[in-house]
Design goal:
Elements: E1 3-10, E2 16-21, E3 26-42, E4 49-59, E5 65-73, E6 77-79, E7 85-87, E8 90-94
Antiparallel strand pairs: 1-3, 2-3, 3-4, 4-5, 5-8, 6-7
The structure holds zinc ion.
């Protein structure tokens, strides 16, 4: 089985994102300083794909820098209250 990877480097944006800060111990505004997005599909079944954003983030209040990943996989679907499927994001924050 062949797995195809692709990588995108996304410029930092000036938007603020609500993310939990380990230093402030609450949800605060963060800047996303850089975001490197990797996505892949398999040659066997093109319906299977995944996408992972690797982000360096900075808390606006305490300036602490941490790292987070936001990933989705087509095999991991959730259903909203209307019964419509969507890809649930798996978010992990490090540091
Ligand atoms: Zn903070």
């Amino acid at each position: 089985m062949k797995i195809t990877y692709d990588t995108n480097i996304i410029e930092c944006d000036k938007n603020k994102h609500q993310i939990n800060c380990n230093e402030c111990q609450k949800i605060t505004d963060h800047y996303v300083l850089s975001s490197i997005e990797q996505f892949g599909t398999t040659s066997v079944d093109e319906d299977i794909y995944w996408n992972c954003k690797n982000q360096t983030i900075q808390c606006v209040i305490c300036k602490n820098i941490s790292f987070r990943t936001v990933s989705i996989c087509s095999e991991r679907q959730s259903y909203d209250e209307k019964g419509e499927s969507y890809y649930s994001e798996k978010v992990e924050v490090y540091g």
